[in-house]
Each structure stands twice: as C-alpha cells, then as structure tokens.
Amino acid sequence: MEAEEEPFAAALMSVDEIWFLFTSFIQSVLTPGWRQNQILIVLGLAVACYFLHILSGRVIENQVRAREGWSKWQLRMIVQIKRRMGLIWFAVLSGGLYLVMQQVTWPSRSYFIGLAATLAVVWTCIAYAARFVRNRFLRRLVTWGLWIYATLYFVGVSDEVSEFLDDIALDVGDFHLSLLTLISAAVVIGVFFTVARLISSTTASSIRKNEDISPSMQVLAVKAVQITLYGFAFFMGVKAVGIDLTGLAVLSGAIGVGLGFGLQKVVSNLVSGVIILLDKSIKPGDVISLGETFGWINALGARYVSVVTRDGKEYLIPNEDLITGQVVNWSHSNEYVRLDIFFGTSYGCDPHLVRKLAIEAAADVDRVLSHPKLPVCHIVGFGDSSVDYILRFWIRDPTGGLTNIRGNVYLALWDVFKENDISIPFPQREVRMLEDT
User: Fold this and answer.
1) pLDDT at 61
2) What mean pLDDT value characterizes the chain?
3) What burial class does residue 13 get, using C-beta atoms within 10 Å of its C-beta: 0-12 exposed, 13-18 middle, 19+ buried?
4) Strands 337-345 vs 328-329: parallel, antiparallel or unpaired
5) How many CB atoms neighbour CB 66 within 10 A?
6) Where in the numbering of this chain does the Mechanosensitive ion channel MscS C-terminal domain appear (predicted)?
7) For a Cys-Cys bond, which of 65, 249, 287, 427 suits 330, CB 3.0-4.6 Å?
C-alpha cells in the first residue's frame, strides 16, 4: 500500500515546489523595487510592440501590393514575417534596452528584461523553424512544446516541472510510461519526421528527374524511400526518449493479428499496389478501360489508382480491382492505338473508288497517323441495301479522346462522298393498302 502511495506523494511534492516558486515570484513582483520596475517596462514594451506590429504590417502589405511578380515562396515568407512582427519588434527593443541598461546600471536591475529578450528571440526562431513541419497539428504540437520547454529552461524551473510530469506515469512491471515521456516523444518524433520529409522530398525529386527509371519504378522507389525514412524516424524518435518497445511486443502482436483480420482489403490493396509497380502493367499516363470507366492514369497511390476521364471525373480505383479484373491498357507496350469505324454505300458505287476516297479522307484528319501505320479500308460484307466497309486508322494520343476523332473521320467521309456522288443508302419500306374483298 505504501509503495502505491509513493508516486502520488512525489507528485504532490512536485506541485508544492512549483507552487512555492510561483508564489515567491508573484510576491517579489508585487513588492516595490527594481523587479517591479522591470516587469512594468516589459509590459510597456509589449504594448508598444503591439502598435508597431499593426503599423509595420500595414507598411509590408502596401509594399507587397505595390509590387508585382512575387513568387509563392516569397509571399509565404512575407506572410510569416508579417505575423511575427510584434515578436520581432519586442526582441529588438527589449534586447537593445537590455544592452543599454547593462552599461548604465547594475546587471541585476535588467535581469528580467534580458530574460524577456532572450525568450522573444528563442520563440521567434522556434516559430520559423517549425514551418518545416508540414502537418498542421504536428507543427503546432512541436511549436508549443518547444516554446514551453524553452520558457521553463530559461526561467530555471525545468527540472521541477520535468520531475512533476515524470511522476504522472503508468507503471506495469518494468514498463514506465510517464506524461513527460509522451510529450518528449511527440516533440522528438515531430522533429525526426520533419527531417525525414526533407530528405525524402530531395530524394524523390532526384528520382523523378532520372529519365533512365520508368515512371512506375519511380513511384515505387519514392514510396520505398518514404516508408523507410518515416519508419526509421518513428523508431529513432521512440528510442531517443528512452521508451523500451520490448515490453509492448505481446500487445503489439495481438493488435497486429486483429488488424490483419479487420483490414484485409487494405492490406490486399497495398500488396496489389506494390505488384502493379513491380510488373509495370500500368504507369502514370497510360490510357486504360476498366468496365465503363475510360481514362488515363493520373497517379498511383498506395491504396488506389487515380483515373481521370474525358469529362473531368476522377475515379479512385482500388489496386485489387486492377489485379483481379480485366483491364484494357491502350498504351501498355506502345503508344499506337487502332480505331475502327463502319459504314456502307449503295450497290451502284464503285467499291475501288469508295475504298480510295475513304483512306484519303481519314488521312487528312488531324491526329490520324499517315506514317508508319496508314489507314486501310476493307469490304466486310454485302448487306440488304448496302456494301459494308470497315475503315481502320491509327492514333498515338488516346488521352485526346476517341469519340471526337471518330466523329471527325465520319465528317470527312461525308464531305468526300458528297463531292464524288457516293450515296449512303438507308432502309426504305413500301406500304401497300389492300382493298377489302
């Protein structure tokens, strides 16, 4: 029973120590003297810097509006500077005042002003350094965590607060998980993730610029680098704060089995995505048909493939469907695509002339290839009222659409047949009225 009360008693002792330091500081501030004067000076500087923040923000905004041609990264930098102008002004003014007071009076009479200047500089640096963290929630967590730690460190109460947070813990056998460990792990992992993201972005850019690597292998290499770096960052962050993962081996194994049964489709799509990238069956830019969906591959994801159709719709097709289903890849081995259209002419028209005119009409249409694959026209049958033909031609840009090119070829046939008196028959029916007998 006494062993169970020890952590609670230690936590109460830490709270008492922190409360004693806080009340002592408040009493010293309320007592007339140089400490109180320094606090009043700091508050006065804060009010002055607030108004300077407003005025300088307007000046910066007017300068930006008056000048054109700013790039995105320049505008983002200016926005961040504008947001932190109050803190920058406070760091400059308090730092300058601290240096002056160090020369004209006793150093102890400017201690709090120097502390405020130091904190302002540190907070500013942390705010700008945290911009490298892309995730908004993680960025705020890292920023506030570092701000609080820097404040406690320079104030000189970091040891007492760390002891208090470490006393709030969950102990299971040899496993010790405290609130301090969780906060430290979140901040450290956030920093490691930021470094991993910067390295992966640079590596991914280099891989995409390498023309010797196919697009599908580029995607696979980028994903492999990202998974490796982020996994390494997570485990390094956990180990850096001293968390022993061996105590969670059994629990993580049980959770893994449960996730394996519950997330079968997710795992199947992940494995299917890796297979697609390895066998190079589809790659970004390929034109595919899957059921009623026809479009080109926009992106290959870990779980799905993004297919954009001609009408602007973007379909997110699970990777498993591309492995188990029948997929028509119009540009798998080469970029040439053959299209067929059918038409018929009357029996009174010369079939040799019809075939010649049809080939010439198709060859004159934009996007239809005349080399190395020429259009061809063949008779496919003798119908009830027409001689039936098939016209075959080739294109090399299926992403430009198939229906529109077919329509243009039909229009070209209509024009050339009209100029050469080639008639296109249509069904005719004769109705007889019989008299009553």
Assistant:
1) 79
2) 76
3) middle
4) unpaired
5) 7
6) 343-424
7) 287
